[in-house]
Amino acid sequence: MRSFLVTLLFPLLTVLPSPVFALELAAKVLRVIDGDTLKIEVEGHNESVRLIGIDTPESKANAKALKDSARSGEELAAIVLQGKKAAAFARSLVRKGDVVRLETDVQQRDKYRRLLAYVYLRDGSMLNESIVRAGYASLMTIPPNVKHQERFLKAFRDARENHRGLWE
Which residues pair with 34 in a beta bridge? Predict the structure, then answer.
């Protein structure tokens, strides 16, 4: 029944900008794009998934990395190196072929049409939170997707206070 419902609803997800209902979907990981973005297959469709609530440094010298460098005063090369570390950490947790569970929030797509999700690993842990707790991401809360905001804040503070990941 769930598969049938998802099959019926999936075309709606690609048309509607922001459905107001949350979904839980099983998906297969195709690859980790960077520290906060995955390519997945769900119900026969390939999707880019942006992890809700977190932001990792860019792993390539692009426009956002340049903007982050100008804003923070950090060298572009340092930001890209941090981004590569964040991506490597994400790849250590999730690999091609892994089956994950996606949980959406109020807004299901961003302006780039990426699916916005909390990603749960086979052991039940949340990938988004694990990346923050290990110190490889900052918080990026964008309402209305605030379901796990406090959980992420606690993980972020823990990482900073214990000098993990990017906060060493």
Answer: 37
Quick check: is 50 catalytic? Answer: yes
Nearest to 52 by CA among 125, 139, 154: 139
Ordered mean pLDDT values, 10 residues apiece, the chain (168 residues): 39 42 88 98 96 96 92 94 97 98 97 97 98 98 97 98 95
Nearest to 100 by CA among 51, 151, 140: 51
From the candidates 50, 109, 129, 133, give the one annotated as an active-site residue. 50
Q: What is the value of pTM for the model shown?
A: 0.86
Q: How many other C-beta atoms can be found within 10 angstroms of the C-beta atom of residue 98?
A: 17
Give the active site residue among 47, 58, 109, 133.
58
Cα-based distances in Å from 26 to 53, 63, 109, 152: 20, 33, 17, 23
Q: How far is CA 148 from the centre of its chain?
A: 13
Structure tokens at 50: 């942006």
Is there a contact between 38 and 48 (Cβ–Cβ < 8 Å)?
A: yes
Active site residue 109: no
Tell me the C-alpha distance between 53 and 118, whole Å: 8
> Annotated catalytic residue: which of 47, 109, 114, 129?
114
What SS3 state is found at 11? helix
Q: Any catalytic annotation for residue 58?
A: yes
